[in-house]
Protein: PHOP2 phosphatase
Organism: Cochlearius cochlearius
Amino acid sequence: MKFLLVFDFDHTIVDENSDTWIVKCAPENKLPNGLRNSYRPGHWTEYMGRVFVYLGDNGVKEEEMKRTMTTIPFTAGMVDLLGFIGENKELFDCIIVSDSNTVFIDWILKAAGFHKVFDEVFTNPAAFSSAGYLTVQNFHAHHCAKCPKNLCKRKVLKEFLDKQLERGVSYTQIVYIGDGGNDLCPVMFLKKDDIAMPRQGYTLEKKISQLAQDLSPVECSVLVWSSATEIMSYLKVLIKE
């Protein structure tokens, strides 16, 4: 009996968007209007690339970025939840699928001592160039019309499950915990024994309830959460069954 926990990162594990949190490093804690207005829907990664160039041009170094990123707050109850999962790793495989980047997630999880809770992190690859600028790339290419250009979370989840099956690992249940519009695609891939846990008041919850109103509800069960202690309560029931 093994369960797979799939987490989004921004507004799910941490209570903010890590990509907008980094703006605290910018001069006067803000970006120029021209840069802010250069974002095109579906092309977030390219936009963040320009933000990182701007920070680099303004002399923002790796150390300062790291200091800033590790002050990002965790969502209510999340520290307890991750501690609980860490104590029960024999029952839970745990992955992150996120539109953030490897550098930010790594810094934040390591600073809080949670990097060992997660078996794998699927996110946009990032690294510092020889000039000290942070660079970020698209996670992969895909053909899903519903998802942003750089990341289809359904594709990531499906490929992960296929790889696990090849290793002889299958899951009693998948629990998907997220908040955003780009979490809907993987949620629609879940089966009736699985469970989607959208964060209350965020886009994913609204999209799932819209589907139910349109009489095309998702196949899996849905349990809304506002504090991660509610997720922990559900997992405790799950492992007792």
Summary: DSSP finds ten helices and eight strands in the chain. The chain has a mean pLDDT of 95.
